[in-house]
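Appendix B, example 12.
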Amino acid sequence: MMSKSRIIKTLLQIVVLIGLLLAPYYLSSYNLSLLGRFLAYAILALGLSLVWGQGGILCLGQGVFFGLGAYALALHLKLAGLGPTDLPDFMVWSGLSNLPWWWKLFHSAAFSFAAVILIPALAAGGLSWLVFRRRVGGVYFALITQALALAFSTLLISEQGYTGGFNGLTDFSTLLGYTVLDPKFQRALYWITVVVLAASFWFLEWLLASNFGKILRAIRDGENRVRFLGYNPVPFKALVFAIGGALAGLSGALFTLHAGVISPANVGVVPSIEMIAWVAVGGRASLVGAVAGTLLVNFGKDWVSNAMPSLWPFVMGLLFVLVVTVVPKGLSGLWDRDSWDWLSRAISRWRSGGQPPASVSSGRNVEHVKKAVGIDVAATPLSEDETR
C-alpha cells in the first residue's frame, strides 16, 4: 500500500506532466521551442543524475554520447531530403564523388532510430567496462571522459567532408514523410519529448527503488566494502553508464529535431561541463532536481544572454561556486534539514564569539563510535573535548 507522502508525490508529478502537455496552448511558439529543447536536455540530465548522483561516477564527457545520438539521427535527416544519387552539399564542396558506405546505412529510418540509442549505449558501456575493470575511477575517469569529449569534437571538425566540419549538420526537411518545420510536426515533437522525459523519469525511479538501486548506492558509498560482500561492482557501474549514454543519445536526437542543427559546438568539453552544472544546481542525487536545474539554468542563460551576452559566463561561474560552497546538495537539498546545518553552525559560532559551540549531538556521535569499536561507554564517560 502506498504511503501518504508517496501518493502526494505521484499526484504532484501528474499535475506537472499535465501542465507540460498543455504548454502548447498557453506558450508562444518561441517559448515552446525553447521549452522543447530544454526538456530534451533534461533527459540527458536524468541519466547524468543516475551516473553521477547515484553511481558516484563523475563524467565530464557526456556531450560525446549526446553527440553520437544527435549525429545518428542527423545523418538520416540529411539523406531524407536528398535524391537517390545526390550528395550533401558539404561533401560536394570537399570534392567527394561517392557517398561513404557508413552513410548509406542511415538511409533506413529504423536503423537510424535504433542507432540513436544503441550506439551511445554501446560506446558508454564498452568504455566504462574497459576502464572500471582496471579499477580506474574518480578524478582519473573524469579526465578520461573530458579528453574523449575534446577528441570527439576535434574529429568532427577535422573531417569536414564526412561530418560537415565546424558547421555541423543542418537544413533538415523531412522525417518519415512529415515536414520538420510544420507547426503541427513541432507540436507533436514537443509532446513526444514530454512523454519520453516522463517515461525516463519513472523508469529511473523504479530502477533506483529496486535492489539494483540499493547496490548502486552502496557501490557509490563504499566500493571496496561491496567487493568484500561478494558483489562485483564493474557490471553495475558499466550498466549504469550505458543507461546514461542511451539517455544522452536520445536527448541528442530530440534536441536535433527541435533545434534543426547539430554541430561540434554542442558536444565538446564546454557543453559537457555545462551539463554537469545543470545537475549540480538542481541536485545531483535527485531526479526532480536534475530536471529543475536543467530548466532553470538554460532559461536563465537565454534570458541573460539576450540582455547582456557577455555576462552569462560570469553568472554561470558564480552560480556554480555558490552551489558548491553554500548548497552542495543543490536546489533539491533545500528541502533537506541537514543542508541547513552550515547556517546554524555559523550563527552559533557568531553568537559564541568565534568559538565552536558545544553540541549534544556531537557527543552522541562519539558514543556511537565508541560502541562501534567495542568500548564500554558506561566505563569511559565522555570527556569535555568529546562533548564539543
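Residues 183-209 form the longest helix (27 residues). The beta strands are 169-170, 174-175, 178-179, 261-262.
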